[in-house]
Amino acid sequence: MRSNLGLHLIGCVALFVLVVILLVVSTYVTLDFMYFGIMTLVLGLLGLNVLSRAYNLLRAPIRVTVGEQCLRVEHRRATNEWTWEQIGGCIWRGDAVLIICQRTGRPLVKLPGILESLDELVDIVSYKIGEMNSHASSYFEAREKRKVSIGLALSSVFFIILGLAGMYDTHEELRGFQLLNEQGVQGMGQVESLRTAMIGPVKRVVYRVLSTNGKAATGDVIVDQKYWESLEVGSLLPIVYVPEAPRFSRLVRDEIKPPENPVKSYVVCTGLVLFGFFSFFQARRLWLRHCEESAAVNGG
C-alpha cells in the first residue's frame, strides 16, 4: 500500500507540474485558447483525482475483520467497531471507494478499492443488515436516491441557466453587429487600463465610452503589441459606437466582423437547456421513487 501511495503522490505532483509549465509557456508563446483551456483543465482534474486517491490510501485501514456481531476496522492509530444494527448499508463512490454508512446515511468508514475481498464484504454487509433489520437496506437506498435527485435538480438548474445565458450572449453579439452597421457613429474613448492576458500573451485595452446623450459604457478589445505600447492610461483613441447603446463599440482601426458561427452557438446552448430539463425530470422521477420507498419502509 505504501508503494501505491508513493506512486499516486508522484503522479499528482507530475500532473500539477505540467499545468504550471503550460501556464509559464503561455506567457511567452501564443497558444490556442480552446486547446490550452481543455489541456490545463484535463490535467488539473486528473491531478485532483490522483490526489484524492492518494488521500484515501493514506486513510485506508490496515485490517478489516468481519464478525458475527460486529464489523471491526483497524487503522494505524485507532480501532473501531460497529454492530450490525448500527450499519445501514454500503455504497460505491465511483470505482475507488466503498463507503459503509449508518442507517441515517452518515459515513462510518471509507475503504479504498485496492483492498482485497471488498466484493465479499459488500455481500456480507448486505446479508447482515438484512438479517438484523429488514428495513435497513431499503432505508439506505431510499436515502441515496434522495441525494442523487437533489444533485440532479441542482445540476439541471445550472445547465438551464448556462444554456439561456449562452443564447443571450449570442443574441447580443448579433444585435451589436447589426447596430454598429446601421447606427454606428465615430467618437473618442478614454483608455482606463492596459492589460496583458496570460494566454498568448494577449494585449487588451479597456476604454470608457461616453455617448452624446449622457449614456456611458466600457469597452474591452484585443490589440496588437505595437499599438498597445503606443497607448497609455488616460489617452484617447478613435472608436465607433452606438449612441443609444454605447456598450456596443469597436476601434475605428478594426473592421466590423460578424459573430463566428452563431447557429452552432444556438445549437450548443439549446442542447444544454434540453439536458437541463432532462436532468430535472430524472431528478423528479428519483424523488418520487424515494418518497414511495420511504413511505413503504415507514409503513412497514
Write the layout of secondary structure elements.
Elements: H1 2-26, H2 33-58, E1 63-66, E2 70-74, E3 79-83, E4 87-93, E5 97-102, E6 107-112, H3 118-132, H4 136-183, E7 185-197, E8 202-210, E9 216-223, H5 225-229, E10 236-241, E11 249-251, H6 262-299
Antiparallel strand pairs: 1-2, 2-3, 4-5, 5-6, 7-8, 7-10, 8-9, 10-11
Helix pairs in contact: 1-2, 4-6
Q: Notable features of this structure?
A:
6 helices, 300 residues, alpha+beta, PH-domain like, three-stranded antiparallel sheet, elongated, 11 strands
What does this structure look like?
The chain is an alpha+beta fold. Among the domains are: 57 residues; 71 residues, PH-domain like (Roll); 71 residues. 52% of the residues lie in helices and 24% in strands. The strands form 3 sheets. The protein has a 5-stranded antiparallel sheet with strand order 9-8-7-10-11. A hairpin with a 4-residue loop joins strand 2 and strand 3. Helix 4 runs antiparallel to helix 6. The protein is elongated. The model has no long low-confidence stretch (mean pLDDT 78).
Number of strands: 11
Indicate the structural class.
alpha+beta
Proportion of residues in extended strands: 15-25%
Task: From the alpha carbons, calculate the radius of gyration and give it in angstroms.
Answer: 29 Å
N→C terminal distance? 44 Å
Principal-axis shape: elongated
Q: Which sheet architecture does the biggest sheet show?
A: 5 strands, antiparallel
Q: Ranges with pLDDT <50 over ≥5 residues?
A: none
Q: Can you tell me the CATH architecture of one domain?
A: Roll
| Cross-sheet strand order for the largest sheet | 9-8-7-10-11
Order of helices and strands: HHEEEEEEHHEEEHEEH
What CATH first level of one domain would be assigned?
Mainly Beta
What is the CATH T-level topology of one domain? PH-domain like
Estimate the helix proportion, in percent: 40-55%
Overall average residue pLDDT: 78
Number of discrete helical segments: 6
